[in-house]
């Protein structure tokens, strides 16, 4: 969280700390291997992982250093953030990327085991928290968080998705420890459990909710953006590595900025590259990483994100996953500031692109944007066989969602989409005459 992490087991933490680091000892003319741990399918880290690797920008930046060293990059792909942290604290990974809650565990474990790490840049973020979603089975009768009381819910403990679940339940008066039966499962296991009917709901991070909805295996119950709390992914680096090879880290951050620019300038092509590398549908990648996607990409370490990180500590402490964490000492933006120079201030001030309705037509390398959901519906209605994907922003929160998976409401001449049924019902309650309608009805009304 776009957030793949569970609590590190005791066995994992006992990895030998005397292991050789990812970088060779750097004498003059030596070979320096930079080991990068990433999560290919956590697609809001792609500018520091999947997309960056595909574009080859890091290798090019290293080759341009001409400092007497030969550089090699060892890319290591993991399913979650926990093993990346384990390998970093064992001195085997130099640079890693993961979601905000896993970053805090990374900070805590690094300090605990004498391998301190630091947050050095940000990859993708959503200022309202829309990267996490609670979903249910397509035929589920559950329509609100209150309905989860006494139910079985799958999540990954220690992840941002778990944090969203805990906070959301607390807001509706449900004790997250006793009010539900929580199952600590990897995302793929939880997705299978939801399909098998062994759990009633699944709280997960990008890209699982969008993927399951796209596949027709789930529907949204709760949009994490309802919390209005920022969530993000970032890059963490070992302190001893950054001190020994600052030029290599700066090269990584320059390359990350290049990959960010590529994603923002060529969102469709970027989605296709990530899809090819991960096996995820490009339509799902674009939902999160597209021109108006749920995630905004930028390497600058925004104060608002750091503030949110500090608020996350209490959730992990309550779950007994960590103690106090000195977030200020964990955050170290000196390297990204140096790497980006005068451009850093501009990136720091950059705001997310306003949400908009968008259609991806078959065979097209570009998407078409619309000023209103009704305009998109009219276009889709006239090109039913030529649509690859259609996206609409939630009418009150702004989270992008698949048009055919949204909850549609008619209010006079207006056709309004919502990610979750509860937000749609909240709108209806405040607007006399408004009512929910089917997607097919909305299409028919659009012309």
From TrEMBL:
Domain SsuA/THI5-like: from-to ranges: 82-270
* SUPFAM superfamilies, sorted: NosL/MerB-like, Periplasmic binding protein-like II
Q: Which InterPro entries match?
A: SsuA/THI5
Q: Which Pfam families match?
A: NMT1
What span is annotated as the signal peptide, if there is one?
1-26
Alphabetical keyword list: Signal
Record's protein name: ABC transporter substrate-binding protein
Supply the source organism for this entry. Answer: Streptomyces cellostaticus
């Amino acid at each position: 969280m776009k957030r793949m992490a569970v609590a590190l087991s005791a066995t994992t933490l006992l990895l030998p700390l005397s292991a050789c680091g990812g970088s060779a000892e750097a004498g003059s003319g030596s070979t320096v291997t930079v080991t990068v741990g990433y999560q290919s399918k956590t697609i809001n880290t792609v500018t520091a992982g999947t997309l960056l690797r595909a574009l080859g920008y890091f290798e090019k930046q290293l080759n341009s250093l001409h400092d007497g060293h030969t550089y090699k990059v060892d890319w290591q792909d993991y399913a979650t953030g926990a093993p990346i942290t384990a390998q970093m604290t064992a001195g085997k990974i130099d640079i890693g990327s993961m979601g905000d809650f896993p970053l805090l565990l990374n900070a805590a474990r690094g300090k605990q085991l004498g391998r301190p790490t630091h947050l050095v840049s940000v990859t993708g973020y959503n200022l309202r928290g829309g990267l996490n979603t609670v979903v249910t089975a397509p035929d589920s009768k559950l329509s609100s968080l209150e309905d989860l009381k006494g139910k079985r819910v799958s999540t990954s403990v220690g992840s941002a998705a778990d944090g969203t679940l805990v906070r959301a339940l607390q807001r509706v008066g449900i004790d997250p420890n006793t009010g539900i039966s929580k199952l600590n499962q990897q995302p793929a296991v939880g997705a299978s459990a939801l399909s098998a009917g062994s759990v009633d709901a699944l709280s997960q991070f990008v890209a699982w909710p969008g993927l399951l909805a796209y596949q027709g295996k789930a529907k949204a119950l709760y949009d994490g953006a309802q919390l209005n709390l920022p969530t993000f992914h970032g890059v963490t680096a070992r302190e001893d590595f950054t001190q020994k090879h600052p030029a290599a880290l700066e090269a990584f951050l320059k390359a990350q900025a290049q990959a960010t620019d590529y994603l923002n300038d060529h969102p469709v092509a970027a989605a296709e590259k990530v899809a090819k590398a991960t096996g995820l549908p490009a339509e799902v990648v674009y939902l999160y990483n597209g021109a108006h996607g749920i995630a905004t990409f930028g390497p600058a370490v925004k104060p608002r994100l750091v503030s949110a990180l500090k608020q996350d500590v209490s959730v992990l402490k309550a779950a007994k996953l960590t103690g106090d964490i000195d977030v200020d000492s964990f955050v170290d933006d000196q390297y990204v500031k140096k790497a980006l120079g005068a451009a850093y201030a501009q990136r720091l001030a950059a705001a997310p692109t306003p949400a908009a309705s968008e259609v991806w037509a078959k065979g097209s390398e570009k998407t078409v944007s619309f000023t209103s959901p009704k305009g998109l519906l009219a276009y889709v209605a006239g090109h039913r066989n030529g649509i690859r994907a259609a996206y609409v922003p939630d009418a009150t929160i702004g989270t992008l969602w698949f048009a055919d998976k949204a909850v549609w409401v008619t209010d006079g001449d207006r056709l309004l989409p919502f990610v979750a049924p509860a937000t749609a019902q909240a709108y209806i309650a405040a607007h006399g005459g408004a009512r929910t309608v089917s997607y097919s009805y909305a299409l028919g009304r659009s012309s």
